[in-house]
Amino acid sequence: MSDHYAVLSIRQEIAFSEYSFSYTDWSQSQNQSWTAGLTSAETEQLHQSLAAFCQRPTMALFGQIQGILNQLLPDKLRTSLNQKPPASLALLSDEFCLPWEWLGSLESPLFCSCNLTRELNQRSSSSADLHQEPLFLLVADTLTKHSGSDEDTNLAWGILRDSSVKVVNATSTATRESVLDALYGDRFAVVYAACPGLGRLEINGGSVSPGEQTRTEKVGPRLVFLHNYVRPSRPDLHLYEAATQWANSLCTHGCEALITNLWSASPSDQRRITKSFFTSLCSQARLGEALRLARRELWDKGCIGAAAYSIFGNAQLRVGDLRPMRVRESTTMPGGLTSVAQLSILNGPEAGRIVPLFISALNQRSLIIGSSGARSCDIELDDSLPNQTASLTLQDNTLVLRNLTDLPNLLQVNGLPVRNEIALCGWEKIRLGTIEVQLESAGGPGDESSQSVRAFCVELHDDKEIRTEWYEDDLTLLGRGTSSKISFKDPAVSRSHALLQRSGDSLLVSRLGVNVVAVNGVPINLAQELSADDLVQLSDRAYFKVLRIVAEAGSRKQNELPSGEVSSNHKSPSKP
Predict the structure, then answer these.
(1) Which among 13, 56, 68, 529 is most buried, taking Cβ atoms within 10 Å?
(2) Alpha-carbon Rg of the chain, whole angstroms?
């Protein structure tokens, strides 16, 4: 299995008939969108197969449904997913009926071949409460004891206890109120509940439904596992509706991940899932990997119940991450089905965490990066950082990083200090104190725009010296310092005065710190896009004129000039 991460977005245009898709694989430079539909005969067959499956799940019906769904994928992508699936796949879908996790081959559907999660439209702003030790709560619903759920919770309790995880088995003492407290605000990091269906939880004569809450204290579990022991063992026609209701209810109150099964297998098969999942989790596997291995084990035995299990939310958590979540009122990541980029945290306490940046969230407000404290912070990296260190926002479809402190060297992009703000292109390495974060564009490191050689030509005026140069850098520092790519001698120019950067085919100029930069005589505060013939001034004697901006420079050298332009030595230019 290849080591990369991908996102599959699915938007319903016409139910059971037409869908819009988007697939992005950052490491394999795949980024494609398409619309596909089914014929009326295929739609009818899908209806009938799904209805029959919900009456009696079988491998034959699974294969029929999978075959119809596979037709909606382009041939090349379908082959790629079968032969070289991503390590992790985030699935974003706005409908609740169709099992997109079943795409792939009958021998190895996606839920067996990659760490698969259903991303959510909204998650509450929350962070791990490091002052509280991880504590697991196990509960078995009283109506399911005859189904073997008691044995299931005892099995989980034994595995967790043997791995030194602190665990409470509250099967015999749980009440409606205590379970509500555990789900929506208490000291537990993980809640595992064996339950009779997903419509509601029946706890010793009381019931708990999605969305209920009794506590005002904003602390919640990081993971909830609702192990469904419903009888009869068949799914609902709207496969993911009840599970999605629970996921949205829990995750908007601080929970980061929900695992559940849409229908039940035999008690012995469900205990196999429990044993495999918690054993892998306690061996430091991520949630997505632990569930994939458990489903794979069941699938290889020919058990259709493996297809019932799903994970919603953050599948990247390990057992060491499972602490109670301190919840804030604000919402940081309202999904939308389009991710503009993602942040990959490279070191520090949150190393390995991947944070998707959704367009709808960034259009609504800035995303704050820093540490826990009195003020709101969306991405908490390390306690050594100020409470609010930096912010990310989307301005005119450009991702902008702003320094919220008075310390210019605390925030750096590709080694350059950010005194005020900087527009990002999509593949920068951001450093906050000692913490390094990689920005990864939704287009991927290998997409055409990042592979093409882009260039721009400027006429530089430095006191009495005039020279014309080509540059192919995505980030070009202007100043008087030795590290400046474009260097000026004028003492009025600071060592790191301004920055030129490429954003797609555009060329942007940003001032650094309080330095003055004027475009066509007008001082700028924010990053500004440049066009040919624009005049950019750093001082009275240091300025440059933009001669040409090209998206693809081919084999053009930096000392080549556009046709008809003359360099400072007045020699005839080379033709491009």
Answers:
(1) 68
(2) 28
Write out the two tokens for 12: 């319903």
> DSSP labels for 507-531?
EEEEE-TT---EETTEE-SS-EEE-
How far is residue 300 from each of residues 7, 283, 297, measured CA to CA in Å?
Answer: 26, 22, 5
C-alpha torsion sign, points 553, 554, 559, 563 = negative
Quick check: 424 pLDDT over 60?
yes
Cα–Cα dist 335/531, whole Å: 34
Mean of the per-residue pLDDT values of the chain:
78
Distance CA 143, CA 193 (A): 12
Q: Are 437 and 346 within 8 A, CB to CB? A: yes
Q: How many CB atoms lie within 10 A of CB 418?
A: 23
Residue 77 has pLDDT above 80, yes or no: yes
- 347, amino acid identity: N
In Å, what is the CA distance from 122 to each residue of 6, 118, 247, 332, 358? 19, 12, 10, 8, 10
Cα 73 from Cα 21, distance rounded (Å): 9
CA-to-CA distance for 230 and 490, rounded, in angstroms?
Answer: 78
What's 410's DSSP letter?
A: G
Report the DSSP pairing between strands 416-417 and 339-345.
unpaired
396 has a pLDDT exceeding 70 = no
How many angstroms separate the Cα of 529 from the Cα of each of 401, 441, 471, 522, 536?
Answer: 16, 20, 17, 13, 11
Q: Are 574 and 560 in contact (CB under 8 A)?
A: yes
Residue 315 has pLDDT above 70, yes or no: yes
The predicted structure's pLDDT at residue 28:
60
- What are the structure tokens assigned to 321, written together? 């991450």
Pick the more confident residue, 59 or 456.
59
With cut-offs at 50, 70 and 90, classify the pLDDT of residue 141.
low
Task: State residue 359's pLDDT score.
Answer: 62
Q: How far is CA 261 from the centre of its chain?
A: 23
pLDDT band at 280 (very low <50, low <70, confident <90, very high): very high
pLDDT surpasses 60 at 331: no
Q: Nearest-5° angle of CA 215, CA 364, CA 515?
A: 120
Question: Do 183 and 220 form a contact (C-beta atoms < 8 A)?
Answer: yes
Average pLDDT over residues 446-463: 64
Rounded Cα distance, 285 and 282, in Å: 7
* Cα 178 to Cα 136, 157, 182, 576, distances in angstroms: 14, 19, 6, 74
207/229 Cα distance (integer angstroms): 16
List the structure tokens of 192: 């595992």
Report the amino acid identity of residue 193: A
Measured in whole angstroms, how far is the alpha carbon of residue 548 from the centre of its chain? 37
| Span 442-452, pLDDT tens digits | 444 333 333 34
For residues 173 and 139, what is the distance between their CA atoms, to the nearest angstrom? 9
Q: Across the strands, what pairs with 479?
A: 487
Whether this prediction's pTM lies above 0.70 is answered by no
| pLDDT winner (highest mean) among 72-76, 94-98, 206-210, 572-576 | 72-76
Q: Please say whether the dihedral angle defined by the alpha carbons of residues 12, 16, 20 and 21, taken in this order, is positive or negative.
A: positive
CB atoms within 10 A of CB 234: 15
